[in-house]
């Protein structure tokens, strides 16, 4: 739908209504984004797998021919946790909203919507997802080295295990979002092995302790009683 530009944020629009897709794409392009469009749910995962660099964000319709939006949301979140997701839907029931967010969506927009709102929400979600992984300023930040599977606090390597790094990575890519223990287990163990929820608590405890060795008075991983955990960087 538009010519890729590596200097622009890449947005994938998954929408089976051509008029809506064209309108959203035009507004995104006018706001400095580069967009790509897919109209069938079955095309999404192969398209993502084939790319060497994936889009920063997916605008994902709930009702699609082929694979539905909720299934795609779950798969994208598990396989490419760094990709942000905004779901688009005409179904306004609260249960759908909660289910979509529980499966990993970063935001939810109900139809009919203003294309300006889509652009504004896109910018807001991208800001939130980048806040946790932007380069440190003056060496006083928590930074992920994803290629080296390291986390650096004030430039100090925290010495995380692979599971601890994966947990921190998932939460840092969605700062402020609450993850249930079950969702975190899905990211810890991709083979879906059966483990106790206490296993998550144990890994979180160790992760907190390692962060506290560098930042004894800062709490960035917070418990949400009865739900799970979230990464909440201090203002």
UniProtKB/TrEMBL annotation:
Keywords: DNA-binding, Phosphoprotein
SMART domains according to UniProt: REC (SM00448), Trans_reg_C (SM00862)
UniProt cross-references to SUPFAM superfamilies, sorted A to Z: C-terminal effector domain of the bipartite response regulators, CheY-like
Domain Response regulatory residues, every copy: 10-126
Modified residues (4-aspartylphosphate): 61
Stretches assigned to the OmpR/PhoB-type domain: 132-233
DNA-binding stretch(es), residue numbering of this chain: 132-233
Name used for this protein in its record: Response regulator
Organism annotation: Halomonas rhizosphaerae
């Amino acid at each position: 739908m538009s010519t890729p530009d590596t200097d622009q944020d890449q947005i994938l629009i998954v929408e089976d209504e051509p008029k809506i897709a064209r309108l959203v794409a035009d507004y995104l392009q006018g706001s400095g984004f580069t967009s790509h469009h897919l109209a069938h749910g079955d095309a999404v995962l192969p398209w993502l797998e084939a790319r060497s660099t994936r889009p920063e964000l997916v605008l994902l319709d709930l009702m699609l021919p082929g694979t539905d939006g909720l299934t795609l949301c779950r798969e994208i979140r598990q396989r490419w946790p760094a990709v942000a997701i905004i779901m688009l839907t005409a179904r306004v029931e609260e249960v759908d909203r909660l289910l979509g967010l529980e499966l990993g969506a970063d935001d939810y927009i109900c139809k009919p919507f203003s294309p300006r709102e889509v652009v504004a929400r896109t910018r807001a979600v991208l800001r939130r997802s980048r806040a946790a992984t932007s380069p440190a300023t003056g060496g006083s930040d928590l930074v992920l080295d994803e290629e080296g599977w390291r986390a650096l606090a004030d430039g100090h390597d925290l010495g995380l295990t692979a599971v601890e790094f994966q947990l921190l990575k998932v939460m840092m890519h969605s700062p402020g979002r609450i993850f249930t223990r079950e969702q975190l287990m899905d990211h810890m163990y991709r083979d879906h092995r059966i483990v106790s929820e206490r296993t998550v608590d144990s890994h979180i405890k160790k992760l907190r302790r390692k962060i506290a060795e560098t930042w004894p008075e800062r709490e960035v991983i917070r418990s949400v009683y009865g739900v799970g955990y979230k990464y909440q960087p201090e203002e």
